[in-house]
Specification:
InterPro entries: BP-dep_ABC_trans_perm, MetI-like, MetI-like_sf. By secondary structure, the chain is mainly α. It has 13 helices and no strands.
């Protein structure tokens, strides 16, 4: 009986390893292919797609960066993503702490209110947001003669942060609930107020969860396309929208090297960030479920 159980366990482990290796291959191979394609010449795309580049055409990146405007689009995406994350953390962190650690009138209502937001996909409310901002610009045009809300990266950042609030508050508040109250009690005994306790004791303890929230929302903001396309109709495009324009232009020009170089420019920041915070991300995803 024991031998049969041991064999079953080994077979299960082999199956798990096989599935994990297969998933790794499915993920790694396309990424590696894009990196290789980004340094190929145009003539090489008409032969074997899996062939190694005959020479490395680094000028594809230079052309994508300058000629195709990917450098400007990258700057816009960095600005929008960074500002969105700053706004999100400034609003969500204290709100999550208050909802998780204090008892007040209407607490259940606000918890339920933010929970409802988890079931609303931001892409489903793009049209109402667009109409609301367009109406605001129409009124501003009549009052001061200049629009403000449309084609504004600051407004796009605010919209990103607002739509990410429900998920962020839900995740952070659940993490704060797992932290022992003894830390707060010790801070109060030492004379610390609520704000000092939050900033110097509780917020640093929530660092793994904060890093997890930042990474998830970074990926969401960085790769977001529909809102950026709808709310930024002018030249202040972000990388995903700029990449679509590059794709259409380079396909017609049959310059595939620049196209894949643009894809690398989009992917590289997310890969670097994930490698940097991988351990903290794993910790943030698991430690919140442990009571202590």
């Amino acid at each position: 009986m024991t031998d049969t159980k041991s064999k079953g366990t080994k077979l299960y482990k082999l199956f798990v390893y096989f599935v994990l290796i297969a998933l790794a291959i499915v993920i790694v191979v396309p990424i590696a292919w894009v990196f290789l394609a980004s340094v190929k010449g145009n003539a090489e795309f008409y032969g074997n797609p899996w062939s190694w580049p005959k020479s490395f055409h680094w000028e594809n990146f230079t052309s994508a960066w300058t000629t195709a405007g990917m450098g400007r689009y990258l700057g816009n995406s960095v600005f929008v993503t960074a500002l969105s994350l700053v706004l999100l953390i400034i609003i969500a962190l204290p709100a999550s702490y208050v909802l998780a650690r204090f008892r007040f009138f209407g607490q259940k209502f606000w918890n339920g209110f933010f929970m409802l937001g988890l079931f609303i996909n931001a892409n489903y409310i793009v049209v109402p947001i667009f109409l609301m901002l367009l109406d605001g610009d129409t009124k501003l045009q009549q009052l001061i003669g200049h629009p403000f809300f449309m084609n504004n990266l600051w407004v796009l950042s605010l919209v990103y942060a607002s739509t990410a609030l429900p998920f962020t508050i839900y995740l952070l508040s659940n993490y704060f609930r797992t932290l022992p109250a003894s830390f707060e009690e010790a801070a109060y005994i030492d004379g610390a107020g609520y704000f000092t306790t939050f900033m110097k004791v509780m917020a640093p303890m929530a660092r793994p969860s904060i890093i997890t929230v930042i990474l998830f929302n970074f990926l969401s903001f960085w790769n977001e396309y529909i809102m950026a396309l709808t709310l930024i109709p002018g030249d202040n495009k972000t990388l995903p929208v700029g990449l679509l324009n590059l794709s259409a232009a380079q396909k017609s020009a049959q310059n595939y090297g620049q196209l894949y170089a643009g894809l690398v420019i989009v992917m590289l920041p997310t890969l670097i960030l994930y490698i940097m915070v991988q351990k903290q991300l794993t910790k943030g995803m698991t430690v919140g479920g442990v009571k202590g």
